[in-house]
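Input:
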Amino acid sequence: MPEPATPPPLSLYVHVPWCVRKCPYCDFNSHAAVGNIPEKAYVDALLDDLDQDLNTIIDRTIHTIFIGGGTPSLLSPNAIERLLTGIGQRTGMTEEREVTLEANPGTVEREKFSDFLHAGINRLSIGIQSFDDIQLQRIGRIHNGNDAIRAAETAEAAGFGNLNLDLMYGLPEQTPEQAVGDLCIAIDLNPCHISWYELTLEPNTLFHNQPPPLPGDDAVLGIRAAGLPVLAESSYTHYEISAHAREGRECRHNLNYWSFGDYLGIGAGAHSKLTDTGKQEIYRTWKIRHPRAYLENTTGTSRVAGRSKLLQQDIILEFMMNTLRLTRGFSTAQFTEATGLPVSRITPTIDEARSRGLLSRDGDLVHTTDTGSRYLNELLLLFMPEGSARAGTGMG
Amino acid sequence: MTDISRIRNFSIIAHIDHGKSTLADRFIQVCGGLSDREMGDQVLDSMDLERERGITIKAQSVSLNFRASDGEVYKLNLIDTPGHVDFSYEVSRSLAACEGALLVVDASQGVEAQSVANCYTAIDQGLEVVPVLNKIDLPSADPDRVIQEIEEIIGIEAHDAEFVSAKTGEGVVELLEALVSRIPPPEGDPDAPLQALIIDSWFDNYVGVISLVRVVHGKLAPKDKVQVMSTGRTFLVEKVGVFTPKRSQQPELSPGDVGFVIAGIKEIDGAPVGDTLTRTERPADSQLPGFQMVQPRVFAGLFPVNSDDYENLREALHKLRLNDAALHFEPETSQALGFGFRCGFLGMLHMEIVQERLEREYDLDLITTAPTVIYEVLTTRGEVISIDNPASLPPVNHIEEIREPIIEANILVPQDYLGGVIGLCVEKRGVQKKMQYLGNQVSLSYELPLSEVVLDFFDRLKSVSRGYASFDYHFARFQASRLVKLDILINGDRVDALSIIVHHEVAQARGRLLAEKMKELIPRQMYEVAIQAAIGSQIIARTTVKSMGKNVTAKCYGGDITRKRKLLEKQKAGKKRMKQFGKVEIPQEAFLAVLQVGREK
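Output:
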């Protein structure tokens, strides 16, 4: 029997599936809240969900918590506090733990920022998207540019030293000047993290059916080329496809995803990824998706809707889908540790990708080239198994 | 068993849309071959493709029992014939099994060229031709004019033509009576050694090869040991029977009968169409006159997208060839596409059908290269070689002259559309040989290069005449012409599978259009794709497919992974339809870009 390896670090994701209104570009599990959010029942359900999950996990430390959505800032500070206290009682509390809350910049949410901090949130991620009122309207956001600036200022004043601003580019008919303008306003607000990502049309969204007049591929490339140096000049390091951070301020929770770490997901439709080090197997599970069904599930029973074991081929692909998003890539040791596979399994593919100028290898470190990061999907296709039979066992 | 004097073997000659299938269905219904419930639309067109396209590709047969007014029951064997110009060969096969034919003409549209050609084939083979005017229930029906057309254009008596409406059923019984009285019964000696003509053969996954035969002399029954006369191979007959149109087993087949034979033949070339079956114990002296082998006119390369499918493609082609004697193929190797087959077809429709059957029935992903005709090349050393592949054209300095196949086309067109049709023929480098006014129609005869005809002539003819013009053609001769090879270069490399042979006058224009079309068809990818058209070393057109700049998913967090994976799987599936050529991926359609160029002009 081989000695069981150390399991990878574990994070906790908490999904809050409600929004005031569904954005036309959003393909996440979010639902327009009708009337008041049943927050007491939902927090109870989340903690019960966590209890069920913890039954299957022995003695593992949770390093980060991320409360995402939807719009989790719709919850009251009390509810957040009760949730975090409950999580703390079940998993132990540590000072260093990164606890992120996603927040919208609207007036109502802003007023809660200070209380969120006191409830135990130590990192805030605000969905600014743009500071341009017209653009915000076109992409169906309910706040305006002024709200966005005020939100960042309020967070700062409340004491959120660890602040992320989400910005989109490639907005309808956007010029490079407009996009850089948005970036400059964000940089002036001096957050330690900026997520700057391209608006894309995802299936099952309103925009997919009724596409807005997005700039063409070349125009988007122009925007990207104009924006990246602006971020770099202000000491934001480009550490992932769409993530930029001041030194030491990378999002640890997301870094864990992108390093192929383990995570527990609680809440409606949340996904978990867990490594069974004893058997060298990786499982994905997902919870009941619809908020009502999730809530109606009785206490003390599992809310798992499905579970699948990753095939060896899938493990390789998903490892790459995550780690190659990072500028630093991965080390061969990390590959073996996370997948249980020898690096020789992927050496031919790495060499092929290198010959196409998509990957670089410096000793043990493998990372994308500039071309590789722009054509990450092309690169990942090299790691995709021929024929794509999926192993999955739905559980209801 | 039916007395031979009460058998009638006949075909229906009709232009597409003139109501052949509907009439056949009426016959089946009147004779009680199928219950109303079983009468799906157009029973005889049984191949999926045939129904979808509303055409008949393969010979089919049905045996019907008809009680005539003389009180006797007659066995009527209807052998169906294809109606498209590509398949005239199949027509002569079907007619070889008959003593008579119904010439069905639309009573308002009048005679069409295809029917003329098929009717001559029937007359050549000594068949009794009975003219039938269909769709007489339509207000636009003009029987007198159409009778005159039949007499003037085809030259057969038509004053006693039968009038029917297959749609309403009017005149159908009377037509069957006429068929019995006008078409002679077959002749044959039941006691002579067996001679049975193989009209068609096809492969059935459960019983092996099924052959449709016409017994000329002798008898054929289960447990008979039979021999295929050309190959000498022997088989034990398992089952014989007729189509009603359901497969109905019979104790034996006698002279005059048209029915099926199953003889445990597993090899797909065991029962060649046109061959003669005889009995091993008492063989016949000679084979029946088979059919004249047709030469394929259009050639194209078929390559599997996935090179692992090469053997499957070979197997599938063998199986198709069993009941499609006109399909030719031999291995071909392309620098760009790897191993595949150079296939010969009767025409474009035939090519499309073969390709579609391979993809549908055999689940193959194929790349078809631009179709070409066969050229003759006189080399500087005085040799004459046949070229069915532009890639195998000798170097220019070894060529004395290139000769292209010329056909003689007979076109029938209503006067109103004459101008458009003549314009089309001129554009296609045609030379007028004859023009004759016949009633409301004009009969045109043109000599045209086959290469101009195979691509899109048929479609264009239909469109300039609103569907009213019809045509038929036959090969005339090879003729020297100023032809050049047009090459396509992708990122500077010549792609052999994209070369075409064109007339020098249109080469420049064709090259430009082709390069533009390729640009539309090749998707943007990681690298810029330079497309050039060249004649020899001279570049005549140049376009570029710009690089797509990026292909990356903006967001990917924990729970997203399955959705993002699906996105990748979709991209992967898209690539499966493309052929990797160096760094560039070329989609299947691009290899047929030359066809689309013609269609848009």
